[in-house]
Design brief:
By secondary structure, this protein is of the alpha/beta class. The protein is built from eleven helices and twelve strands.
Length: 332
């Protein structure tokens, strides 16, 4: 029996979470769902974007699925705070192209490993009416931990056997200097893995001009966030972009897309990102075979091109595409 925390959030978060639950219910595995609240609607109801009860539920579960949350003015981000509470310091964002979906290039397949707990996302801001300061916190400890994850992934993937460090140490000499130094310190323990490092602005260009050059990219919090959204644009958009947040004790899995209030309630949200995030969760808890089956099912449905949501050029509803993927999984 797996205890899974379910946090739908708001906007399309709850809609795509229904797809994840529908899929999990159809698998030959036993799950116990524990439900928590978070986000804008939660704030209106409870006066907080992330209740203590939700944190407790996530910490006591084998893994957590999170849908999406709408930004609440003047309030902290629930997903950022939940990541910190669970100490899930590595944000993994796989990027791959699918046949039939317009991409910058065929056979794109790399993963971005983003440090998840510090940098500008530390949310340490202060100032006055004229000057406002945001602290960018970078530690050797966190930098080495995230680099270790990146090298282990490169070894596991067996693709290009390469890790690319992305930084801006020519300008941010101390903070990104520490990040770059930490990367090469960890690299000494992996002589079989090739290494390189680029400035973040150059990487943004290389992702477009030569995306096949990348295998594993490791970067700081903000840079990793920006590059992962750019990378999703290379392969069809955020609807095909899953993510996992991994720590030593907890795993938190979420689609990269936001709450998309403009399409909320219309039933046309792409469920693939949520379903692929669910697949990452299954891999995390040790159900690697079914995780691979789900990935293949998404690929089959997307590549056939018959049942696609509007963001992918089709006319299908969220439920229709979900059912098609689930039927593909069941038939495997």
């Amino acid at each position: 029996m797996y205890n899974i925390a379910i946090i739908g959030g708001d906007g399309i978060g709850n809609e795509v979470m229904e797809s994840a639950e529908y899929l999990l219910d159809k698998l030959d595995l036993n799950f116990n769902f524990n439900y928590g609240e978070a986000g804008f609607e939660c704030f209106n109801k409870n006066g907080t974007t992330l209740p203590e009860e939700t944190i407790k539920i996530a910490k006591s579960s084998d893994a957590t699925l999170f849908g999406a949350s709408t930004s609440t003015p003047g309030q902290p981000s629930p997903i950022i705070n939940l990541r910190k509470e669970l100490d899930v310091y590595a944000n993994l964002r796989p990027i791959r192209s699918y046949k039939g979906i317009k991409s910058v290039a065929d056979n794109i397949d790399f993963i971005i490993v983003r440090e998840n707990t510090e940098g500008l996302y530390s949310q340490k801001e202060y100032g006055n009416d004229n000057e406002v300061i945001a602290e960018r916190v970078i530690t050797r400890t966190a930098s080495e931990k995230i680099s270790e994850i990146a090298f282990k992934l490169a070894k596991r993937r067996k693709k290009l056997n390469k890790v690319t460090c992305v930084h801006k140490s020519n300008v941010l000499k101390k903070t990104d200097g520490v990040f770059k130094e930490s990367f090469y310190k960890v690299a000494e323990n992996y002589p079989e893995i090739n290494t390189e490092d680029f400035y973040v602005d150059a990487t943004a260009m290389y992702l477009i001009t030569n995306p096949l050059n990348f295998d594993v990219i490791v970067s700081t919090n903000l840079f990793g966030d920006i590059l992962s959204d750019e990378s999703a644009g290379l392969v069809g958009g955020l609807g095909l972009a899953p993510s996992g947040n991994i720590g030593d004790e907890n795993g938190l899995f979420e689609p990269v897309h936001g709450s998309a209030p403009d399409i909320a309630g219309k039933g046309i949200a792409n469920p693939c990102s949520m379903i692929l995030s669910t697949s990452m969760m299954l891999d995390y808890i040790g159900e690697k075979e079914i995780s691979q089956q789900i990935n293949k099912a998404v690929e089959s449905v997307v590549c056939r091109g018959k049942i696609l949501t509007p963001d992918l050029g089709g006319k299908a509803k969220t439920k229709e595409m979900t059912e098609a993927i689930v039927q593909e999984v069941i038939s495997c």
